[in-house]
Amino acid sequence: MRDYLKRQQKLFSKKQQQRLEELKVMVAGTGGLGTNQALQLQRIGIDKIYLYDYDRVEISNLNRQLCYGKKDLGRLKVEAAAEFLREFDLETEIIAKNEKITLETGVPGDIDIIFDGMDNFESRFILDQLALENELPFIHAGIEEFFAQIMLVLPESKLRLKDVFAGSEKKETPAVFSPAVTVTASLQVLEALKYLLQFDQYLKEQLLHIDLLSNQMETIDLK
Amino acid sequence: MINLASQIHPVLCRELGGILILGVIKLALKVKFYSLFRINLKSAGTEYELDNQITIAELIKKLDQDYDGYFTQKLLEEDRSISSGAIILLNGKNVIHLDKLETVVSNQDTVTLFPPSAGG
């Protein structure tokens, strides 16, 4: 076990800790959710993170996208995020992929899961399709104002993201801010881990709805 | 009746002093609100005991009567199609994949209504 992970040792069995340190993930989109996911995934000591984005850092990103500052304005997001994460000098390998995700995207062959770091449903449906075609688990999250939802879609899931969220594609730019984005991304990482490390309870054919204004989290059955 | 009750559930019967209380199971359509809908309406949902099955469009009219026209405004576009700012699930399935607003609902069904969170 890596020396800096000692304080989380009691949380996991030896097998789980070993699995954790072998995990390889794709973070699809390095915006608010994606940068927060990457920070958490690096801290818990996974093996490899592929960061995907094709955008450059804009001023409107800085209220929630934790890997960037004003000095990064105009830089490619994946390059700035990778540099920021590597400066912590932890063992997780960070790979920057400056690519727009399309149905033709070649998903890395060694990943265990795809993290949704997108900010619109059109892109998410493409990502879900890629997950299906590559027989990979996919963990969705969306955040708007004080509300969020998380859904784990497995290769064998009867319901895909589109089955639940069809019709949600066209909307004006959602209001988002850092504390709510960070909570959502952290829960997304937790839910992914519960599945990947084979805890008994994870989101099975359920949607996790999060209301941060009323402090309520509820699962909605999708079967 | 008491003997019968004892045979059915002796422990419960003792606790109730040997008196069997018969409950009536209410059959109703459950409608659940989440997110801003819940906060705006100060309600987690409602139930309707239906005489006959109704469509989602008719359910929205019923909800409008109880919640001052709120749901037409939130769930429908001006052309009366389902708004992109609202998800309507029938027993966990998006009604867009069923018969949209003509999807039929009845007692024992659960309709879930919420605005999807799209950002990231």
From TrEMBL, chain A:
It comes from the Bacteria. GO terms for cellular component: cytoplasm. One of its GO terms (molecular function) is nucleotidyltransferase activity. The keyword Plastid does not apply. Keywords: Nucleotidyltransferase, Transferase. CDD domains: ThiF_MoeB_HesA_family. Gene3D superfamilies: NAD(P)-binding Rossmann-like Domain (3.40.50.720). Residues 6-222 form the THIF-type NAD/FAD binding fold domain. PANTHER family: ADENYLYLTRANSFERASE AND SULFURTRANSFERASE MOCS3, UBIQUITIN-ACTIVATING ENZYME E1. This is Molybdopterin/thiamine biosynthesis adenylyltransferase.
TrEMBL record, chain B:
This is Molybdopterin synthase subunit MoaD. It comes from Halanaerobium saccharolyticum. InterPro entries: Beta-grasp_dom_sf, Mopterin_synth/thiamin_S_b, Sulfur_Carrier/Prot_Modifier, ThiS/MoaD-like.
